[in-house]
Amino acid sequence: MEVQDELNQQQVLSMIQKGKRFDGRSKIQFRDIEIERSPLQNAEGSAICRLGKTQVIAGVKIDVATPFPDRPNEGVLSTSAEFTPLGASHFEPGPPRVDAIEVARVVDRAIRSAQSIDLESLKIDGSDKVLAVYVDLWVIDHDGNLFDAGLMASMAALKATRIPKVENEKLIRNEIDRMLQIDKIPTSCTFAKYDQHFLLDPNFVEESGAQATMTIATTDTHMCSGQKSGHAGLTQKNIMELIDISFEQSKTLRNIISNED
Fold first, then answer.
1. pLDDT for 197
2. SS3 17
């Protein structure tokens, strides 16, 4: 752990011992969440998730593709993430960082495991080709918890995605055939571990000083994925409690994604 991360850890632990967090939240409370839908004109679907000071843009493009050999009747889903220099002072130009790849994988895994998209519905009738759904994430402001912000942005963008008309295995992008059908909306809850305390939706300081982090993705019916990082261990009791919290929080998060009161 770097010196600054150790200092962050000491600061956060000191606040926890006083029963506080830097921004006044309880231990199990998200920052303010705002979803802006369809901000990008040229994408088939898009959304911006603002989670406190963290901002993530999701853009969805639809294209014609060759299916994977072992799944000839299924469309393609691909998720990528890019940490642009404008997102944080420590982001640099160049190939995707390891942590950018991790964000993309965690978001992709939740969407796949939840079976949010019926990939068989993306088969093009009378053709060996299929439709591909490309989800691209851009971090434009990083103040912690990119996993949850990235998944919310992705699901809001996918719910707004329009599938263009297909003729002769080519897309006619100025003609809309239908909306992309979303069967399940996964959400995730990320927790930062400090001794026996867990902080939901850690900001950058809380995240960088954490002894471990745990991200749990759920639908309304089941846990669909999990991701742990950091050296500290979690007990079975810890994990079960975090799963329960994630299920409870997911109700509110799904309503925000779906723009429901």
1. 94
2. helix
| Residue carrying structure tokens 């606040």 | 15
Which residue, chain included where needed, has tokens 């990082």?
229
Binned at pLDDT 50, 70 and 90, residue 256 comes out as very high
Q: Residues 163, 62: contact at Cβ < 8 Å?
A: yes
Give pTM, 2 decimals: 0.93
Instruction: Write b or e for each residue in 128-157: b if 16 or more Cβ atoms lie within 10 A of its Cβ, otherwise e.
Output: ebbbbbbbbbbbeebbbbbbbbbbbbbbbb
As beta bridge partners, residue 49 has 35, 56
Over residues 81-105, the pLDDT tens digits come to: 988 877 776 777 766 678 889 999 9
Nearest CA to 249 among 192, 162, 191? Answer: 191
Dihedral angle of Cα 19, 20, 21, 26, to the nearest 10 degrees: 70
